[in-house]
């Protein structure tokens, strides 16, 4: 059977926080969750846009300011969410930037790595204790097929200070999203019922492609009708990862079409590099050092 939005269970009584939810994939994810009865928080950088997005959604929707390029903002957003929501059922790390010219975040991190990975790493760590006691709670992080591009975590130049390739930097950030999910799931295994799951939208027609290099815009616009899908379809893997009762921690969902570019959500696999446990552990330690955020779950120590 093909999984569709009609299979999203009722979400009454659940609280869902969706980052980057004022447009595109995040908006469609938030809209469907709210329509199924969840209380949804749109965690967005531009609160004016967030309020306009909230007005287009039927249901219990609120807006929380969150700028993932600033650890100060991430901490303020986490404090705001903690003050208004004593529990969180779903944390959906959806926001992201792609193929940007080299820029840095407020804290000096390369923009794509800092936003896509470190910002979400910090937010998750600051909110995780609100999810741990909640049965069926999940952390869903949105990656990309781009995680296969020059698939490596460049520990010798994480911030791309020596040389910069916008596609490779994006690939590193999306690979980091997957490695974070897999390592988080191992740490969650002995703590309550929270699961860490990943998803990717295939090739979706959203504002995320606005920074692609000019030389690629012609070919992309020509190929778009053949390989892209609307945000309504691109959000389905995330929604399945967040709501399907059969989903297990550590899984990865994406479209079932050719090369996972479009289609209905199914269980998929990521690149061989993404499953390297040693690199996952090292990335986790580096991310803790860079963000100053420590998680309330530690890696289990095997018995001798």
From TrEMBL:
Q: Which domain of life is it from?
A: Bacteria
Which InterPro entries does this entry report, sorted A to Z?
NAD(P)-bd_dom_sf, SDR_fam
Keyword Iron-sulfur set for record: no
Q: Keyword Aminoacyl-tRNA synthetase, does the record have it?
A: no
Question: What molecular function does GO assign, one term?
Answer: oxidoreductase activity
Q: Which keywords accompany this UniProt record?
A: Oxidoreductase
Q: Which family does it belong to?
A: Belongs to the short-chain dehydrogenases/reductases (SDR) family.
Q: What is this protein called?
A: Short-chain dehydrogenase
- What organism, scientifically named, is this protein from? Actinoplanes auranticolor
């Amino acid at each position: 059977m093909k999984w569709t939005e009609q299979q999203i269970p009722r979400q009454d009584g659940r609280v869902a926080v969706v980052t980057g939810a004022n447009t595109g994939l995040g908006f469609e994810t938030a809209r469907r969750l709210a329509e199924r009865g969840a209380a949804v928080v749109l965690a967005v950088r531009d609160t004016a846009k967030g309020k306009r997005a909230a007005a287009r959604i039927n249901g219990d929707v609120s807006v929380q300011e969150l700028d993932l390029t600033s650890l100060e903002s991430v901490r303020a957003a986490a404090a705001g969410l903690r003050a208004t929501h004593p529990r969180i059922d779903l944390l959906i790390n959806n926001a992201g930037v792609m193929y940007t010219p080299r820029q840095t975040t407020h804290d000096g991190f390369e923009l794509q790595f800092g936003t896509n990975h470190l910002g979400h790493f910090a937010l998750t760590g600051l909110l995780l204790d609100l999810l741990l006691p909640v049965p069926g709670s999940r952390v869903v992080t949105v990656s990309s097929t781009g995680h296969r591009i020059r698939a490596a975590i460049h520990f010798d130049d994480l911030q791309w200070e020596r040389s910069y390739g916008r596609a490779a930097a994006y690939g590193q950030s999306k690979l980091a999203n997957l490695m974070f999910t897999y390592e988080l799931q191992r740490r969650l295994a002995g703590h309550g019922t929270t699961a860490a799951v990943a998803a990717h939208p295939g090739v979706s027609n959203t504002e995320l492609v606005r920074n692609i290099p000019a030389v690629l815009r012609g070919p992309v616009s020509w190929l778009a009708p053949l390989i892209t899908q609307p945000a309504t379809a691109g959000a389905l893997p995330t929604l399945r990862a967040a709501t399907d009762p059969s989903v297990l921690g550590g899984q990865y969902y994406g479209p079932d079409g050719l090369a996972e570019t479009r289609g209905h959500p199914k269980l998929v696999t990521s690149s061989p590099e993404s499953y390297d446990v040693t690199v996952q552990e090292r990335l986790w330690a580096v991310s803790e050092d860079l963000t100053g955020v420590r998680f309330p779950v530690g890696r289990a120590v095997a018995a001798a």
